[in-house]
Amino acid sequence: MSGLEFLDVRVRFGRGAKTVHAVHGVSLEVPAGQVVGLVGESGSGKSTLGRTAVGLAPLHGGSILIDGQPIRSRFRRGEPRPVQMVYQDPYSSLDPRMTVGDSIAEALPPAARRRASSRRAEVSRLLDLVSLEADYQEMLPGRLSGGQLQRIALARALGARPRYVVADEVTSALDVSVQGAVLNLVREVQRDLGFGMLFISHNLAVVRYLSDSIAVMRLGKIVEAGPTAELIANPRSPYTRALLAAAPHRRSGPAAQ
Ligand SMILES: Nc1ncnc2c1ncn2[C@@H]1O[C@H](COP(=O)(O)OP(=O)(O)OP(=O)(O)O)[C@@H](O)[C@H]1O
Ligand SMILES: [Mg+2]
Fold first, then answer.
1. Is the CB of 151 under 6 A from ligand 1?
2. How confident is the model at residue 257, as a pLDDT?
3. Closest residue (by CA) to atom 17 of ligand 1?
4. pLDDT at 256
5. CA–CA distance from 136 to each of 100, 107, 141, 152, 183 (Å)?
6. I want to staple 31 with a disulfide (CB 3.0 to 4.6 A). Which of 3, 149, 160, 224 is the partner?
7. Long-range pairs for 137-144 at CB < 8 Å and ≥24 separation?
8. Strands 164-168 and 221-227
9. Per-residue pLDDT tens for 217-242?
């Protein structure tokens, strides 16, 4: 089985009467090279589920497998990680004191990082992948726009050559005018490099644009999942229907949020 699999995953926060079952028995598969969209209202547990795949949320039950093998949560420094996450807020995902080039280089595998010339070439290649010129290497994040920073965060995640990417609301914090361009870029890069992706958004219009299949999450559970066209044309759950009714109707192209 080739894919990133969540099997009966459970995450809870707090204790006693105040326990929040943020993820309450979720099983979901991201097949290799495919995009699975995860949609649901605020607080439904989408980010928490995504974070379990990179070891940032504690599992209280269930397991996560890559190609049938349990995923590891601890890695030595420089060791390649099969799953990388890109976050909503591009301003906080980069160290403001480090140049763009150093931030990207830090995430490279040791072999690519060792020599200055190969490091520079690899950083340039990654910047090119996200449609930024090599000059960006020298810049500090404070001088860049949200859209540029999000491209750099993506380049940084891809530098580790992940087999799977968890993209968590990657366009939500961006100005509406650049959201479409960043979404298009994510889609192009995913297709070119062929990694699998869990694409999280509260916006069904955005999710449907780039997902092969969609899972709808509510109160810590998946209420419905299926191939994108089928789920959109024939939603079974009333909750999915409500999300569809709330999403702007556009047949093609990334919708504004
Ligand atoms: N570190 C934490 N400590 C305590 N509670 C948490 C923590 N992280 C998440 N939660 C709770 O878990 C639930 C799910 O949160 P989560 O952030 O996964 O939702 P989400 O679907 O990503 O929402 P949004 O669309 O607003 O990003 C919420 O009730 C949230 O308050
Ligand atoms: Mg979230």
1. no
2. 45
3. 47
4. 45
5. 7, 16, 10, 9, 21
6. 3
7. 137/99, 137/100, 137/101, 137/104, 138/99, 138/100, 138/101, 139/99, 139/100, 140/96, 140/97, 140/98, 140/99, 140/100, 141/91, 141/94, 141/95, 141/96, 141/98, 141/100, 141/103, 142/96, 144/100
8. unpaired
9. 999 999 999 999 999 999 999 999 99
Residue 222 class from Cβ within 10 Å (0-12 exposed, 13-18 middle, 19+ buried)?
A: buried
Ligand 1 pocket check: which of 12, 20, 198 to mutate, most ligand atoms within 8 Å of Cβ? 20
Model pTM? Answer: 0.93
**225-235 burial code (b ≥16 CB/10 A, e <16):** bbebeebbeeb
- Ligand 2 center to residue 113 CA distance, Å? 32
Instruction: State which of 32-36, 103-107, 177-181, 240-244 shows the largest mean pLDDT.
Output: 32-36
Specify the higher pLDDT residue, 10 or 251.
Answer: 10
Tokens at 211, concatenated = 């997902």
The whole-number average pLDDT for the span 135-164 is 93
Q: Where are the domains of the chain?
A: 1-82+162-257, 94-161
pLDDT confidence of residue 252: 47
Whether 174 contacts 91, CB under 8 Å: no
Packing angle of the helix pair 176-193, 116-129 (nearest 10 deg): 120
Q: Identify the CATH homologous superfamily for domain 1-82+162-257.
A: P-loop containing nucleotide triphosphate hydrolases (3.40.50.300)
